[in-house]
Amino acid sequence: VTSPRPAPAVLVAADLLGVKTIFRLGGAQAIAAFAFGTESVPRADKIVGPGNRYVAAAKKLIAGECGIDFIAGPSELVLVAARGNPEWIAADLVAQAEHDPDAVAIFITPSHKLALQVQNAARGIVTRLDLPLAGQSLASQGRIIVTQNIQEAAELVNRLAPEHLTLFEGATSLLGRIQSAGSIFLGAHSPVAAGDYASGTNHILPTGGAARLRGGLSTADFVKCISVQRLSSRGLAGLQKTLLTLANTEGLKAHAYSVRTRFQTTPAGAPESAAPGRTPKR
User: Which position among 76, 98, 99, 163 bears the catalytic label?
Assistant: First the structure.
């Protein structure tokens, strides 16, 4: 575990989880240290977790030197609703926007009225809570998209493949049509903040459209599978025709021979055309 300035609460949580070593490192330099190892930092087999653009660039550079989870960019939220409390919707969008000036917060709805209500509510929240960073993020990366119907929203979501997806009132029925999203929050009482802190799901999620390729970090990222096979003579005989056909089709003679030789009685080095026990003609 590494953190440049670990908060006391994080240190206590790590201790309760049995974490015994925490390195006070961060940024691209921490990625380099764990990828290659130093006198005081052991070389890691895999580096996982989010970070800023410099961390993302460093992880991309060292991929291959050690394993990584994925390149995590700015945080993203797509919220889809046909109806609902505009203050709640706006609150979720602003909460996402306060992460980073590059954070993406998108609201998709078929209701032009609701779109305007959410826009006004978001402006109000930014002002009341004094959130200039969130205001900057919404101005540069925030979007409200009005669709012809709620079904069209599902198509947009799958194209965007967002890190977080909230299906609000009037949109929960789209769940079965969603093919690409890092984590889905279903219903009006499922704010993304619940996933950030306490609902139990992993919150290291793919961004930048990578949800089309994989889901969030999980125990599978720390499992290495090694296949083992053992064939009996009878089992290999049953595969022999298939193996020889494919090897010969590829023109890999030694591959074919490595299978065929196990079923030949010709002494090693003798011409294959010679019958057992006969001297080949010269």
Answer: 163
Q: Enumerate residues 6+ apart whose C-beta is below 8 A from 145.
A: 106, 107, 108, 109, 156
Per-residue pLDDT of 42-101, as tens digits, reads: 999 999 988 888 998 999 999 989 999 988 888 999 999 999 999 999 999 999 999 989
Would you report the helix, strand and coil content of the chain in percent, each value rounded to 5? 45, 10, 45
Give 166's strand partners.
79, 185
Does 99 participate in catalysis according to the annotation? no
pLDDT of residue 273: 46
> Both tokens of residue 257?
């021979």
Burial of 152 (0-12, 13-18, 19+ CB in 10 A): middle
Task: Give residue-wise pLDDT tens across range 99-113.
Answer: 989 999 999 999 999
pLDDT at position 276 is: 45
Virtual CA dihedral for 234, 239, 240, 245, nearest 10 degrees? 170
**Model confidence over 180-228: pLDDT tens digits?**
999 999 999 999 999 998 998 888 899 889 899 999 999 889 998 999 9
Q: What is the DSSP letter of 97?
A: H
Instruction: Kindly name the residue from 65, 164, 250, 255 that is annotated as catalytic.
Output: 164
Q: Is 250 a catalytic site residue?
A: no
The pTM of the whole model exceeds 0.85: no
SS3 186: strand
Comparing C-alpha atoms, which of 50, 87, 45, 79 is closest to residue 63? Answer: 45
Neighbours of 45 (CB within 10 A): 10
What is the rounded CA–CA span in Å between residue 92 and residue 51?
Answer: 22
